[in-house]
């Protein structure tokens, strides 16, 4: 399964995928990594792995619709079977979603705490358990059909950063495990239900 991975930051989820894809038995390969900004560790990780990269910045385009079109063009050049949003902090518009299936990993138990601050919002709310969700991207914000979830207990002395780091540990294994199974066994979506195999 050919993956294009989209990142905006440190790219530890991307790194977990790159490491898994080094084994041909995993069933997937990262054929390109795209970002919405320059100079991030996620792009450096791709370059160190010898994976092609591209950058598509909103501010280089006259409108969000133009950016959506440019992002589609950049992704389509690599003919992915699946686009993986792994810490990509932009909402992606219909052009890309209508052409390619896309999954996103989010640091909370969807549908709770959508948006850009999933770990901090869960901590502020006072939940005792939170986690990570891998879902198929639809036209909402972190609302799509769920592929997998993993839970993390909240500690009394957690800060947003400490909680997010613990979530990211389970998030990386959930992502690697799910993408590998999707690649090897196939997958489908019926209504809100994602089935692997
Ligand atoms: C991950 O925890 C991911 O779930 C989150 O950004 C982090 C990226 O970490 N994404 C979102 O919050 C999207 N709503 P990474 O760059 O080290 O993989």
UniProtKB/TrEMBL annotation:
GO terms for cellular component: cytosol. Keywords: Purine biosynthesis, Transferase. It catalyses: N(1)-(5-phospho-beta-D-ribosyl)glycinamide + (6R)-10-formyltetrahydrofolate = N(2)-formyl-N(1)-(5-phospho-beta-D-ribosyl)glycinamide + (6S)-5,6,7,8-tetrahydrofolate + H(+). InterPro entries: Formyl_transf_N, Formyl_transf_N_sf, GART, GART_AS. The record marks 142 as: Raises pKa of active site His. Belongs to the GART family. It comes from the Bacteria. One of its GO terms (biological process) is 'de novo' IMP biosynthetic process. Residues 1-178 form the Formyl transferase N-terminal domain. The gene is purN. Its EC number is 2.1.2.2. GO terms for molecular function: phosphoribosylglycinamide formyltransferase activity. Catalyzes the transfer of a formyl group from 10-formyltetrahydrofolate to 5-phospho-ribosyl-glycinamide (GAR), producing 5-phospho-ribosyl-N-formylglycinamide (FGAR) and tetrahydrofolate. (6R)-10-formyltetrahydrofolate binds at residues 64, 89-92, 104. Pfam families: Formyl_trans_N. The active site is at 106 (proton donor). Pathway: Purine metabolism; IMP biosynthesis via de novo pathway; N(2)-formyl-N(1)-(5-phospho-D-ribosyl)glycinamide from N(1)-(5-phospho-D-ribosyl)glycinamide (10-formyl THF route): step 1/1. This is Phosphoribosylglycinamide formyltransferase. N(1)-(5-phospho-beta-D-ribosyl)glycinamide binds at residues 11-13.
